[in-house]
Write a structure and sequence with these properties.
A seven-stranded mixed beta sheet has the order 4-10-9-8-7-5-6, sandwiched between helices. The chain has a four-stranded mixed beta sheet with strand order 1-2-3-13. Strands 11-12-15-14 form a four-stranded antiparallel beta sheet, covered by helices on one side. The chain starts with a helix and ends in a 7-residue tail after the last helix. A hairpin with a 2-residue loop joins β11 and β12. The protein folds into two domains: 170 residues, Aspartate Aminotransferase, domain 1, CATH 3.90.1150.10; 247 residues, Aspartate Aminotransferase, domain 2 (3-Layer(aba) Sandwich). Helix content is 43%, strand content 15%. It is built from 18 helices and 15 strands.
Length: 468
């Protein structure tokens, strides 16, 4: 008998965390319970999640920028239903499917004309892995340079160019000849490139961890140095691409002409994993250089019909609803409203971002009572203050946000590009209320921080496996 999926979900919805604790990542379940994120969502639509009691939660995380067009968009649903009804052959492998050709064509209409070739895969990390291989094959070099604080994914090659040491801890040796430099350090970059063994420089136009980007012409000068020394420029657009920063691609803010682009996340429409490596034909063909190497780099599910249909529908929605421009205008309004809070709250150090990729950074406040609470949390772990705000926004205002990175006093928001005045007002009003509550020390919000301290101290007291 066929699976009664609706009946199964209806009967067992609510067992989510128990099932994960038993069969999946129990550590993640433990963390979600500590920070109060262990909620069960019954449905989602647009910019909102809904729990079992139909209470709405404003999603300013967007699945780490997967849901640029919002959740459960009807146009993508319709495309996937149409596809299933067609009964097309899928993943024949020894053929050339129509839909992958159509999605490649549609993507290339959104990129600069010097980019004309596409390789499809499944995730951001996989696209970075592909870009690394393409760059090495094209240049005959093995070296890679990335930026400090960079995030490029968690698989082996992507982890090798990771800018956060905490993600590499415990995994042993990774790729050799991978170097990280500080954003803006052109002298260090030129010294490395002058050795002429560097295949590629990888950058996120706006870094996902912390939402950092250069104020001056660092990117343009870095591109110039790459050209001079035969190094390829890879722009990791996994999070910044498809309108997130108010342009189709983040690199457009600096007028760059990358040799390779990686794209994923929101291309899926939030339904079927899909990612791509976009490059020049000359680079592409250095990998697939002979007839016997026609599948030397491949991905079993990379060109599957469901993923291609989701990608085509997503690009259509972005155009039809003018969401790239909307990200620019709504992002500017949100930044304006957040900047206004700086005058009221000395905790806010800076508001920065492009489009709807925004960070609010905090620093030690002027007020004595606030200083005490700030120092208490930072004596234990740097990110506890930001986590206190994230949890308070969630528990008291039903708004989902995130800490921008390890050991950062930074709150990061990635709203879907469909948001309007109602969502902006709800977030700004909630953040204002949470920061106002911080002025009462001790008080309820600081009790939340104290709970985090207890868990942190308890964790640090546990002897690590294999310790002497």
């Amino acid at each position: 008998m066929p699976l009664d999926l609706k009946g199964l979900v209806t009967a067992r919805l609510g067992e989510n965390y128990a099932l994960h604790e038993r069969h999946l990542n129990s550590t993640l379940v433990h963390v979600q319970r500590i920070i109060g994120f262990d909620h069960v969502y019954a449905r989602a639509q647009g910019a909102y999640l809904y729990d079992l009691d139909e209470r709405d939660y404003l999603d300013f995380l967007s699945g780490y920028s997967v849901f640029n067009i919002g959740r459960n968009h009807p146009a993508v649903q319709s495309a996937l239903r149409d596809l299933l009804e067609l009964d097309l052959p899928n993943m024949v492998q020894m053929d050339c499917s129509l839909l992958s050709g159509l999605l490649a064509e549609a993507l290339l209409k959104k990129t600069p004309p010097h980019l004309d070739s596409v390789f499809f895969c499944n995730s951001g990390a996989e696209s970075v892995e592909g870009a690394i291989k393409f760059a090495r094959a094209a240049t005959g070099r093995t070296g890679l340079v990335s930026l400090e604080k960079a995030f490029h994914g968690l698989s082996n090659g992507a982890l090798s160019v990771m800018g956060d040491e905490s993600f590499r801890e415990g995994f042993g040796a990774l790729l050799e000849n991978c170097t990280r430099i500080k954003m803006g350090d052109l002298a260090a970059l030129e010294t490395l490139l002058a050795k002429r063994d560097i295949a590629a420089l990888l950058i996120e136009p706006v870094q996902g961890k912390g939402v950092y980007f250069p104020a001056g012409d660092f990117y343009q000068q870095a591109q110039r140095l790459c050209r001079a020394h035969g190094t390829l420029l890879i722009c990791d657009e996994v999070q910044t691409g498809l309108g997130r920063t108010g342009r189709w691609w983040g690199f457009e803010h600096w007028g760059l002409e990358p040799d390779i682009i990686t794209v994923a996340k929101s291309l899926s429409g939030g339904y079927v994993p899909v990612a791509a490596v976009i490059t020049r034909r000359a680079i592409y063909q250095k990998t697939f250089s002979r007839l016997d190497r026609c599948v030397v780099h491949s991905s079993t599910f990379g060109r599957n019909n469901l993923a291609m249909a989701a990608g085509l529908a997503t690009l259509q929605v972005l155009d039809d609803e003018n969401l790239v421009e909307r990200a620019r205008t709504q992002g500017a309004e949100l930044m304006r409203r957040l900047d206004a809070l700086k005058e009221k709250h000395s905790l806010i150090k800076e508001v920065r971002g492009l489009g709807l990729m925004i960070a609010i950074e905090f620093h030690e406040p002027r007020e004595l009572a606030l200083k005490m609470g700030w120092k208490l949390l930072h004596k234990v772990e740097h990110e506890l203050f930001a986590q206190m705000l994230v949890t308070s926004l969630f528990q008291k205002h039903r708004i989902l946000t995130q800490i921008a990175g390890h050991a950062m006093d930074v709150l990061k928001i990635l709203p879907p590009l469909i948001i309007g005045e109602r969502e902006i007002d709800r977030f700004v009003t909630a953040l204002d209320a949470v920061l106002t509550e911080c002025r009462s020390f001790p008080g309820p919000i600081w009790d939340l921080g104290s709970n985090f301290i207890r868990h942190s101290l308890k964790r640090s007291a546990v002897e690590p496996v294999g310790a002497a």
